[in-house]
Amino acid sequence: MKYPNGKSSSFRTKAVTQQKTSFSNRGMTLEEDINETNSYYLNTNKAVIHKKPTPVQIVKVDYPKRSAAVIKEGYFKQASTTDYNGLYRNKYIDFEAKQTKNKTSFPLSNIHEHQIEHMQAVNNHGGICFMIIRFSVYDETYFFPAVKLFPYWDSQFNGGKKSIPYSKIKEDGIIIPFQYQARVDYLSIIDQLYF
Amino acid sequence: MKYPNGKSSSFRTKAVTQQKTSFSNRGMTLEEDINETNSYYLNTNKAVIHKKPTPVQIVKVDYPKRSAAVIKEGYFKQASTTDYNGLYRNKYIDFEAKQTKNKTSFPLSNIHEHQIEHMQAVNNHGGICFMIIRFSVYDETYFFPAVKLFPYWDSQFNGGKKSIPYSKIKEDGIIIPFQYQARVDYLSIIDQLYF
Hints:
Chains A, B: It holds the Pfam family RecU. Two copies of one chain form a homodimer. Chain A is of the alpha+beta class. Helices cover about 30% and strands about 30% of the residues of chain A. Chain A has a single domain, classed as Trna Endonuclease, Chain: A, domain 1, CATH 3.40.1350. In chain A, the strands form three sheets. In chain A, strands 1-4-5-7-8-10 form a six-stranded mixed β-sheet, with helices on both faces. A two-stranded antiparallel ribbon of chain A has the order 2-3. In chain A, strands 6-9 form a two-stranded antiparallel sheet. The longest helix of chain A is centred in the first third of the chain and has 14 residues, at about 30-45. β3 of chain A pairs antiparallel with β3 of chain B, so a sheet runs across the interface.
């Protein structure tokens, strides 16, 4: 297959030679693993990638004397973009991360229309855009390029499935290796695919 | 002067030929102007640049039956990065925006150490990084490259001033033109400086 930079990838080979990373999680969530990974990347001056704060609609704030302002009423808002973005090797990086307990497929209900539109825009403007999908029952975490996601997203509105089969995630994605300090070492996949 | 891409700029000429943009604001804050500008850029498929949500430390959440979760206690956290980032012409874009009522200088207390460190990292990894500084009394909004900011930041710890003189902002910055739909048309400055 072809990638935005015109290089073909060795996806299927990778999927076949994947390693089990069953020692990787130890009860940490995908978000915690990615946050630790991003801290490691930042501290070692490898990349500048951050999770965006959770969007909150703030309705009521108290300003007590001589102490910090307190939010007394607020609501969670739906994100209009992905959760993570930043900069690596001069390139704009953008991704969403989701874990599922499902064994046979990744439900598309995990993603919102706005996020797909955002990923398409990022792709069109030359960014590196992807999803990180963890199947927690298998303890496997996949790098899934946005360009591979879009056809599944579109097909659900044309009579297609509302999910991506696990077998297709294995086929179109690359398993992300566990490293001691970079617990979800997705930059190693970016190095393979885009440089 | 030289910019990261090696092109020299026409800064001083621009500063001299600047136009007053006194019709631009009409009571809108800099943040509102930039949000409108970013929406325009996004809707016209020119760039993908968003403001990050305000970071909130969520302490207590109620989950009422049959209605949305309510945040009952939360606190504002200090941002560890800048407020805005995104993608334009294949490049990672990152900036902070501040307005001041000061007439003679821009106080460095408007910026935090973490933000400076972030801007330095972005600069080192090949991103386009800058500040947008508005002097509200003059109704002037400047594009101020991060590389121009760092020496002022450092000098305050070596007996230097705790602010950047207005005259230096005029000299080292470029005034950002007001456009009807792109109220703070900073991409026009990026086009001049970096491409």
